[in-house]
Write a structure and sequence with these properties.
114 residues; mainly beta; seven-stranded mixed β-sheet; four-stranded antiparallel β-sheet; 0% helix; globular
Length: 114
């Protein structure tokens, strides 16, 4: 089983990034997929969740209206479009899969700074 995140990097405040998470080794379309993040010195927090069929989407209050989660079950990939980024969005972003089992990716670093 693998979850491989990509798309992180350094971006200025107000900028955008698109994270991707490529999944393999399990039946991706059966799993609820989520993005979490962990900022330095803070606990890991849930950012967004999307149900296995692509509906029932939920966001943390801190990212509502700025972030969009989506998935392509044909490509076994989940995405996180992040717009209007703020310095407080700086964190390692993790991909998470949940059904009977749970799986984590190793994370991708997003740094929002001028």
């Amino acid at each position: 089983v693998q979850l491989v995140e990509s798309g992180g990097g350094l971006v200025q405040p107000g900028g955008s990034l698109r994270l991707s998470c490529a999944a393999s080794g399990f039946t991706f379309s059966s799993y609820v997929m989520s993005w979490y993040r962990q900022a330095p010195g803070k606990e890991r927090e849930l950012v967004a969740t999307i149900a296995n069929g692509g509906g029932n989407i939920n966001y943390a209050d801190s990212v509502k209206g700025r972030f969009t989660i989506s998935r392509d079950n044909a490509k076994n990939t989940v995405y996180l479009q992040m717009n209007s980024l703020k310095p407080e969005d700086t964190a390692v972003y993790y991909c998470h899969a949940r059904r009977i089992w749970t799986y984590w990716g190793k994370g991708t670093l997003v740094t929002v700074s001028s």
